[in-house]
């Protein structure tokens, strides 16, 4: 249960941080963009993201 709560909080922050620098600043925006890049560039990161998204992990 807590694993999914942590996942949803992380995704929510990631989406908000990546789109609007006024949300938590330019530094957080760049960190969020880097995390998104890792999700798309790393097969392992993408697979784990998919497992959490579908409830397999």
Explain how this protein is built:
This protein has 57 residues and is mainly α. 88% of the residues lie in helices and 0% in strands. It has four helices and no strands. It has helices at 2-19, 21-24, 26-41, 43-54. The protein is flat. The model has no long low-confidence stretch (mean pLDDT 88).
Main attributes of the structure:
57 residues; mainly alpha; flat
Q: What Rg, in angstroms, do the CA atoms define?
A: 12 Å
- How much of the sequence lies in strands comes to under 5%
In which range does the helix fraction lie?
Answer: over 70%
The helix count comes to 4
Summarize this, please?
The chain has four helices and no strands. It is an all-alpha fold and 57 residues long. The mean pLDDT is 88.
Task: Write the SSE topology.
Elements: H1 2-19, H2 21-24, H3 26-41, H4 43-54
């Amino acid at each position: 249960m807590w694993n999914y709560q942590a996942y949803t909080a992380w995704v929510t922050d990631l989406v908000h941080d990546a789109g609007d620098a006024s949300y938590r600043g330019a530094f957080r925006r760049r960190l969020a963009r880097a995390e998104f890049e890792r999700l798309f560039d790393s097969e392992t990161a993408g697979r784990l993201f998919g497992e959490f998204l579908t409830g397999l992990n």
